[in-house]
């Protein structure tokens, strides 16, 4: 319970003391948007690393050499924990926004930081608004900003299983002309969700697979891209669980 309390206190302190920082970030953005992007990424990553430290989580990153350095990418991962964003954000070498549920826009201050790192808010109940979000994501990757999406559409609550990957999740890569990077996250729910409301020490593995360039794919695979990528992530997931005895 102590870890949970410390994490909540840190998060609230970060958000409150960060108010003047957000104002400075806004001013910077008026004159140098690139600097605002880089500084926002650095600040948020620092905050997340502090939370990772407070939770006692050990993060092992594999396959980071598979992340392209010459273009943006669409990172596609499995989703078991609220901590998936906290754990992955500091790992990304470039500016990377997340596709988050529209309800997150209701959280004051937090939503501003999310916008500062180019997060997109997806209304899953409104097809028209959802399309606008995808088009915004296409625009972002064309401008060099990577996007991370969890195609299961919601947090999977059943251990060692995967919900179907929504095919529409890959439109950002297809229309934006960027590669898909399968991202496997192992054991993240062990930090919090597997024993609510406690936060416990855990080892989490984040694995980046080789980039998938959609133009090079066979037509049949491309038609079932969600299943194909889910299969890659599933294979890596169980191999890593066995390798690290998780």
Quick gist of this model?
By secondary structure, the protein is α/β, with parallel strands linked by helices. Helices cover 46% and strands 15% of the residues.
Provide keyphrases for this structure.
246 residues; alpha/beta; 7-stranded mixed beta sheet
Any overview of this molecule?
The chain has 246 residues and is α/β, with parallel strands linked by helices. Helices cover 46% and strands 15% of the residues. The chain has nine helices and seven strands; from the N terminus they run αααββαβαβαβαββαα. It has helices at 2-17, 19-31, 33-55, 83-88, 110-116, 127-142, 171-176, 219-223, 225-244; strands at residues 57-62, 74-77, 96-101, 120-122, 146-149, 180-186, 202-208. Strands 1-7-6-2-5-3-4 form a seven-stranded mixed sheet, with helices on both faces. Strand 3, helix 5 and strand 4 (120-122) form a beta-alpha-beta unit. It is globular. It starts with a helix and ends with a helix. The model has no long low-confidence stretch (mean pLDDT 93).
Map the helices and strands.
Layout: H1 2-17, H2 19-31, H3 33-55, E1 57-62, E2 74-77, H4 83-88, E3 96-101, H5 110-116, E4 120-122, H6 127-142, E5 146-149, H7 171-176, E6 180-186, E7 202-208, H8 219-223, H9 225-244
Helix pairs in contact: 1-3, 2-3
Mean pLDDT value: 93
Order of helices and strands: HHHEEHEHEHEHEEHH
User: Radius of gyration, Cα only, in angstroms?
Assistant: 18 Å
Shape: globular
Quantity of strands, as a count = 7
| Poorly predicted runs | none
First and last CA, distance: 23 Å
What count of helical segments does DSSP give? 9
Kindly name the structural category. alpha/beta
Largest sheet report: 7 strands, mixed
Q: What percentage of amino acids are in beta strands? A: 15-25%
Q: Strand order, biggest sheet? A: 1-7-6-2-5-3-4
Percent of residues in helices? 40-55%
């Amino acid at each position: 319970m102590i870890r949970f309390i410390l994490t909540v206190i840190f998060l609230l302190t970060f958000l409150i003391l960060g108010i003047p920082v957000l104002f400075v970030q806004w001013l910077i953005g008026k004159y140098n948007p690139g600097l605002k992007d880089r500084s926002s990424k650095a600040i948020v990553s620092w905050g997340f690393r502090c939370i990772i430290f407070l939770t006692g989580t050990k993060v092992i990153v594999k396959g980071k050499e598979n992340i392209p350095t010459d273009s943006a990418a669409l990172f596609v991962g499995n989703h078991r924990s609220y901590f998936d964003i906290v754990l992955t954000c500091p790992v990304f070498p470039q500016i990377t926004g997340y596709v988050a549920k529209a309800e997150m826009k209701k959280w004051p201050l937090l939503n501003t930081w999310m916008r500062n790192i180019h997060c997109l808010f997806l209304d899953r109940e409104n097809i028209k608004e959802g399309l606008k979000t995808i088009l915004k994501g296409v625009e972002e990757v064309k401008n060099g900003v990577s996007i991370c999406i969890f195609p299961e559409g919601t947090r999977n609550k059943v251990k060692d299983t995967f919900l179907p990957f929504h095919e529409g999740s890959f439109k950002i890569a297809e229309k934006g002309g960027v590669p898909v990077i399968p991202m496997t996250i192992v054991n993240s729910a062990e930090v919090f969700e597997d024993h609510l409301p406690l936060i416990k020490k855990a080892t989490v593995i984040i694995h980046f697979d080789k980039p998938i360039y959609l133009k090079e794919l066979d037509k049949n695979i491309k038609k079932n891209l969600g299943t194909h990528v889910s299969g890659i992530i599933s294979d890596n997931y169980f191999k890593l669980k066995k390798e690290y005895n998780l």
